[in-house]
């Protein structure tokens, strides 16, 4: 057996580490005191969260002790998972694409991964349904053959079987003790359309709103979100749960289980050591802080922490060998089926059975 394949077997045994953890200090490309723009979120249905930045305050708000979510675990997963569609990594996983109208969608881009509507309404619906049912019975090999990244980043088949697999990789970016800013703007049209008799004066609010929307009149915008200054720094915390990975099985077959775990570990290590784009969104371009070295540790089950030394190239070499030994699933292109979509809307699977799914939350 190749030594490369056995390289991380100590992590896969019952007495292996609990997790690998990365703690990385980040800084805006514009400097530590730069204004950066976090994610914004819609208001909650009960209005307890009024929308905007997700900032949790502790104690007296005037003390400035708070934590601001810059990039959520779901958003980080979205950014990392699509690396497996890149040419360098595409051979590690089956490339499942769905032709929906004029658009070609890779499963790696789907919000609910293997449980997403885009693949549920195709000819592989039954294959995925059977794979989820097998996972519920302790056999995750079928799912690994068609949608292995669903085992790395987590999946919940909330609309059908209710099968739920935990995410092995969790990565989040937060800023600490932020000062919130606001900004205002004023749009001025190229000319005074109304005053120059090019448009009639708006006679009611509906007409005025239409003029504003189309850029025909002045539009002030005051007190909107203006970013934050992170006085307490910015940090990315990421973990790869080896304890959760060891829950993956191929029934009672020890040899196949070992092969499966090596394969999923290889994918997880590639994703975990990969550095995604520093650009998160307009006004939020973050890079490692050169004055604060990153921490990369192996956390044992008894809490002891040891430095972990694995490069991205090492991870890729292992993943390539593990994928070859496991035997990845075949690439497929399938068509989105409108008739299946109609059935799905009414909670019916391809065979006419009623689905049990009631969930509606995005898993990424």
The pLDDT mean sits at 90
Number of helices: 12
Number of strands: 19
Which structural class fits the helix and strand makeup?
Answer: alpha+beta
Helix content, binned percent: 25-40%
The rounded Rg comes to: 25 Å
3D shape = globular
Topology diagram in text:
Blueprint: H1 3-6, H2 9-12, E1 19-28, E2 35-36, E3 40-41, E4 52-53, E5 55-57, E6 66-71, H3 73-81, E7 96-100, E8 103-106, H4 117-120, H5 125-136, H6 141-146, H7 149-153, E9 155-156, E10 164-165, E11 169-176, E12 178-187, H8 205-213, E13 219-230, E14 234-241, H9 242-245, H10 254-273, E15 279-281, E16 284-288, E17 295-299, E18 305-307, H11 312-326, E19 332-335, H12 338-345
Helix pairs in contact: 10-11
Summarize the structure.
The protein is an alpha+beta fold and 364 residues long. It has 12 helices and 19 strands. The protein is 27% helix and 26% strand.
Task: Describe the fold and architecture.
The chain is α+β, with helices and mostly antiparallel strands and 364 residues long. It folds into two domains: 3-27 and 53-176 and 233-345, no CATH class; 178-228, no CATH class. 27% of the residues lie in helices and 26% in strands. The chain has helices spanning 3-6, 9-12, 73-81, 117-120, 125-136, 141-146, 149-153, 205-213, 242-245, 254-273, 312-326, 338-345; strands at 19-28, 35-36, 40-41, 52-53, 55-57, 66-71, 96-100, 103-106, 155-156, 164-165, 169-176, 178-187, 219-230, 234-241, 279-281, 284-288, 295-299, 305-307, 332-335. Strands 1, 5, 6, 11, 14, 15, 16, 17 and 18 form a nine-stranded antiparallel sheet that branches.
């Amino acid at each position: 057996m190749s030594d490369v394949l056995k390289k991380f077997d100590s992590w896969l045994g019952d007495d292996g580490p609990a997790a690998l953890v990365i703690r990385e200090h980040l800084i805006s490309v514009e400097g530590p005191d730069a204004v950066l723009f976090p994610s914004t979120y819609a208001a909650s249905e009960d209005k307890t969260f009024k929308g905007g930045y997700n900032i949790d305050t502790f104690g007296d708000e005037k003390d400035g002790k708070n934590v601001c979510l810059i990039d959520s675990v779901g958003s980080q997963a979205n950014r990392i998972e699509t690396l497996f569609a890149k040419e360098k990594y595409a051979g590690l996983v089956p490339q499942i694409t769905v032709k929906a109208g004029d658009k070609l969608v890779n499963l790696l881009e789907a919000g609910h991964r293997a449980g997403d509507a885009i693949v549920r309404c195709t000819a592989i619906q039954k294959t995925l349904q059977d794979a989820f049912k097998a996972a519920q019975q302790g056999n995750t090999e079928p799912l690994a053959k068609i949608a292995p990244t669903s085992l790395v980043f987590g999946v919940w088949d909330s609309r059908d079987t209710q099968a739920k697999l935990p995410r092995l990789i969790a990565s989040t970016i937060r800023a600490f003790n932020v000062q919130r800013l606001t900004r205002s703007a004023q749009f001025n049209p190229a000319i005074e359309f109304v005053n120059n008799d090019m448009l009639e004066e708006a006679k009611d609010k509906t007409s005025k709103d239409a003029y504003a929307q189309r850029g025909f009149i002045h539009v002030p915008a005051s007190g909107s979100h203006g970013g934050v200054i992170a006085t307490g720094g910015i940090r990315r915390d990421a973990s790869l749960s080896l304890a959760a990975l060891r829950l993956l099985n191929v029934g009672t077959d020890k040899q196949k289980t070992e092969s499966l775990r090596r394969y999923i570990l290889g994918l997880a290590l590639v994703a975990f050591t990969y550095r995604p784009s520093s650009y998160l969104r307009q006004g939020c371009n973050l890079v490692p802080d050169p004055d604060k070295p990153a921490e990369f540790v192996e956390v044992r089950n008894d809490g002891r922490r040891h430095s972990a030394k694995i490069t991205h190239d090492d991870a890729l070499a292992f993943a390539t060998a593990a994928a070859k030994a496991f035997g990845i699933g075949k690439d497929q292109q399938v068509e989105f089926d409108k008739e299946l979509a109609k059935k799905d809307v009414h909670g019916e699977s391809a065979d006419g059975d009623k689905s049990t799914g009631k969930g509606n939350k995005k898993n990424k």
